[in-house]
Structure formats: C-alpha cells, structure tokens
C-alpha cells in the first residue's frame, strides 16, 4: 500500500479507540493497539500491546517493541481514559489526580516517549481524543471537563514547539458517542445530599446523550481521515453538534449560553 503508515492507538480495546484501530487497519495501515491487557485488543489486523498509561516503563517498552518491529512510528491516536461525574465538593483530590492521569498526564507520558523518534525523523502525527467539555464545562462533570480543557491547551502549546520539527498535533471533539462509557464511569466518592437532585439528573442526561449518539465507527473513520490527510487541522470537530457548541460558545452571551447548557443537562 502506498503511504502505508505505522500507527499507535492508545486505548484500542473498546469504544472510539477500537473504532479508530479498525478503520486504520481496514485501510491497510499497520496498527498497534494498546490496553492494560493486550488480549482485550481483538480487532482483526491490529497487534495488541500491553500498556499502562500511568507507567513510563510500560509505555517505553510498548513504543520500543513497535520500533524494533517496524523501524518507525508515523502516527499516534490517544483515546484511553474514563470519566468522573459528580459535584466538585463530592470529588476527592485522589479522584481528580486519577482523572487527570487518565486524560492528560497519560497522554503526556506517551507523547514524551514518541517525540525523540519523531524529532529524529523530522515527522510524526499526534492526535488526541478530546470533548466539547474542553470548551464548555459541563455541570456535575467539571473534573472531566478540566481534564479535557487541560489536554486541549497542552496540544496548543505543544504545537508551537514541534511544528517547526515537522510534527503535527491535533485534537478531536465529538458530541455524545455510543461507546458504553456510561456503564463504567466513576461517581464522585463522597456524596453530599444537597446535590442529589440536580447531580443525578445531569448524570442521567449525559448518559442519554451518549446512548442516543452515533456508533463509534464514524469517529474511527474521522481519525483515519486525519492521519491520512496531507495536513491535520489543529482542531477537528467531527460532528455538527461539536461545531455548533463551538460557535454558540463564541457568539452567545455567557448568561444565555449557561442557561441553555443547564437545560440540556436537565438542571434548569
């Protein structure tokens, strides 16, 4: 295959990461997909690798195995993580650390492991899964929103540093996607009764958005398109909802925007 790329998909055992690995492999790229347990990576023509996003040694070992086998890595898509929901007062500092480790620090660890190779060859693509929550904090999902906002600012800063070296950086946003994430999210650990009503309605509304969203396959195709494009866009808004939220956040009065967001999560 002409322009066949060697791709690393972090978090390839389920959801959007699995869909991205499937799309890339289906187009003939050489794909390595990671999970804490490589046996959970079951997509055809995707090589599974053990990788723990909080362990530098694990990450370096996985990257080393790819380079040993392929002599190069051309692109990385980061889709690992989970989300925490609940009021800020209910969320422990330990949970905040865990959330940031999943979406932000873990992404940084993988990035640091890849950059020496990318710098050496003068090329490479880094694509990260973000969320509309990175632009507009979601009520009762503030810690999740913080982790995505941090990731987006990280990408913006990283882009200044590595673009002159031939390395492209982008993040992708999408609205609710039917990934099954609502079955494995983490609730804030120390519930406060004062938040019971609005907190539970907001979490339920967020889950409904996911359940009504598209299957991950469409997002997987968007990831593959970005990695194959001549130049990745700095921000990829994959669906009309993401484009609309970005536009409304920029043009609507803040009070009106917040009111509409509250209504969308059933806490108006």
From TrEMBL:
<comment type="similarity">
    <text>Belongs to the short-chain dehydrogenases/reductases (SDR) family.</text>
</comment>
<dbReference type="GO" id="GO:0050255">
    <property type="term" value="F:ribitol 2-dehydrogenase (NAD+) activity"/>
</dbReference>
<dbReference type="InterPro" id="IPR002347">
    <property type="entry name" value="SDR_fam"/>
</dbReference>
<protein>
    <submittedName>
        <fullName>Ribitol 2-dehydrogenase</fullName>
        <ecNumber>1.1.1.56</ecNumber>
    </submittedName>
</protein>
<dbReference type="Pfam" id="PF00106">
    <property type="entry name" value="adh_short"/>
</dbReference>
<dbReference type="InterPro" id="IPR036291">
    <property type="entry name" value="NAD(P)-bd_dom_sf"/>
</dbReference>
<dbReference type="InterPro" id="IPR020904">
    <property type="entry name" value="Sc_DH/Rdtase_CS"/>
</dbReference>
<keyword id="KW-0560">Oxidoreductase</keyword>
<dbReference type="InterPro" id="IPR051911">
    <property type="entry name" value="SDR_oxidoreductase"/>
</dbReference>
């Amino acid at each position: 295959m002409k322009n066949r790329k060697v791709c690393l998909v972090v978090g390839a055992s389920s959801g959007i990461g699995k869909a991205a690995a499937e799309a890339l492999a289906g187009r003939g790229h050489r794909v390595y997909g990671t999970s804490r347990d490589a046996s959970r990576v079951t997509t055809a023509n995707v090589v599974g690798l053990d990788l723990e996003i909080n362990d530098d040694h694990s990450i370096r070992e996985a990257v080393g195995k790819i380079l040993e086998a392929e002599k190069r890595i051309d692109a990385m898509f980061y889709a690992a993580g989970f989300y925490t929901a609940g009021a800020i007062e209910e969320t422990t500092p330990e949970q905040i650390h865990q959330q940031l480790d999943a979406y932000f620090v873990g992404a940084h660890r993988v990035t640091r492991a890849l950059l020496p190779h990318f710098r050496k060859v003068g090329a490479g693509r880094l694509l990260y899964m973000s969320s509309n929550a990175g632009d507009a904090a979601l009520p009762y999902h503030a810690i999740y929103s913080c982790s995505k906002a941090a990731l987006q600012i990280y990408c913006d800063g990283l882009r200044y540093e590595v673009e002159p070296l031939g390395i492209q950086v982008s993040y992708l946003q999408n609205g609710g996607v039917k990934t099954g994430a609502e079955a494995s999210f983490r609730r804030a650990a120390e519930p406060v009764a004062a938040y019971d009503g609005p907190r539970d309605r907001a979490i339920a509304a967020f889950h409904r958005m996911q359940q009504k969203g598209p299957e991950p396959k469409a997002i997987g195709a968007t990831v593959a398109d970005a990695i194959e494009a001549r130049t990745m866009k700095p921000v990829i808004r994959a669906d009309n909802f993401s484009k609309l939220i970005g536009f409304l956040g920029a043009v609507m009065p803040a009070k009106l925007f917040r009111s509409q967001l509250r209504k969308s999560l059933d806490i108006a």
